[in-house]
Amino acid sequence: MFALPLLVLALTGSAVQAGAASALSAVTRLVVLVPAGALTDRWDRRRVMLWCELARLPVITALALALLRDSAGFGLVLLVAIVDGVAAALFAPAEEAVLPQVVDKSQLSTAVAVTAARSYVATLAGPGIGGLLFSAHRALPFLANALTYALSGLLILCTRIKAHRPPSERRSLVHEVGEGVRWIARNPVIRASLLVAVMASICFNALNLIVLAAAERAGVPTGQIGLIGVLTGAGGLAGALLAPRFQRLMTPRTAILVLAWVSTALTPLLATTADALLFGAVLGVIAFLAPTVQTAVVTYQMASTPDRLRGRVSAALGLTGGVAGAAGPLLGGTLVETVGWRGAVLGCAGALLLAGVGAALSPALRSFTQVTGEAPAEPALTPTPATDTPER
């Protein structure tokens, strides 16, 4: 994820094309996520994860070999982005759906935080390694990525997960997707929290591209640009590790408001100077606050969703992340080309301010005070049949 926009910038020199390449993967994921949840509720979720990793391996290898021969074109980069988007769309709901099958419900909140920490470990290690490898040769980050896909597939193959019972009566994908959407529609807490989250996430994804473009145009060395990702990942990792403790100290609503207001206050600092250390420090603080919010919302979702719907609900909620992932980089690249990187930063700060105001005024979020893994009781939710009990 770090090396791909750098590669496009090196090949084309265009921030818009760099944003478009990142956005294409997110758009593909957004489209495929619509049926992905229903399919992962139908199929063996472990096999879904395995085949997703194996599908990414040949295309990322082809890109690396093309770069070694100096024959890589923008079209091949876009193909890699598309395949990655499809695989990610199927992998994510399958992975999330099996988590309650491997940990007890009382441990679910901690498990969600640990899962987030694992992702931030990759975020922390990836940019630094990617920057160094990219400096040595453009192909090396992608060769390393191919090895990680192979290793991930092997680890999934060695993981024992009890297969869930698919529904005995299959209906159309449209009906099954709609069932997950209707479940979310009856849950005001999830609706409100995700509306605020998608606004903040669009801004954060845009800022990632904006600071990369600003650093590259200011002539900051690639190794120092990698420091931005390292600091962002370090902040996210620390926040994920501390998320269970923070959940005992503040309500989910308070965590959402802290993230919104602190992000609004810090973002304008990015417009002061094109300095990799400043960029990384600001994004790192924002990333530090995000896992507490993520853990609260995801734990609530998992604890309150019946097993037969987990893939669909996860995929439907993932659409919000897909919207942010698609719109953020493209918006960031467009703003950089039209109003400059300083204007782009200030525009994101204004959007974060709106997200904070929305969170403060939301009636649903005022009731979001549950900090344990148990979902608070809510009216108008469809009763969970006995057959929906997660298998042990």
From TrEMBL:
GO molecular-function terms, A-Z: transmembrane transporter activity
- Membrane topology recorded in Swiss-Prot or TrEMBL: Multi-pass membrane protein
UniProt-annotated location(s): Cell membrane
Q: Secretion signal: which residues?
A: 1-20
- What residue intervals traverse the membrane? 75-94, 142-161, 192-213, 225-243, 255-271, 277-300, 312-331, 343-361
Domain Major facilitator superfamily (MFS) profile residue range list: 1-374
Q: Which domain of life is it from?
A: Bacteria
Q: Could you tell me the keywords of this UniProt record?
A: Cell membrane, Membrane, Signal, Transmembrane, Transmembrane helix, Transport
Question: Do the record's keywords include Transmembrane?
Answer: yes
Q: What SUPFAM superfamilies does the record tag this protein with?
A: MFS general substrate transporter
Tagged with keyword Transport: yes
Provide the residue span(s) of the region labelled Disordered.
372-392
Pfam families from the xrefs?
MFS_3 (PF05977)
What are the record's GO terms for cellular component?
plasma membrane
Q: Which PANTHER family match?
A: INTEGRAL MEMBRANE EFFLUX PROTEIN-RELATED, MAJOR FACILITATOR SUPERFAMILY ASSOCIATED DOMAIN-CONTAINING PROTEIN
What protein name is recorded for this chain?
Major facilitator superfamily (MFS) profile domain-containing protein
- State the species of origin: Streptomyces curacoi
Source taxonomy: Bacteria, Bacillati, Actinomycetota, Actinomycetes, Kitasatosporales
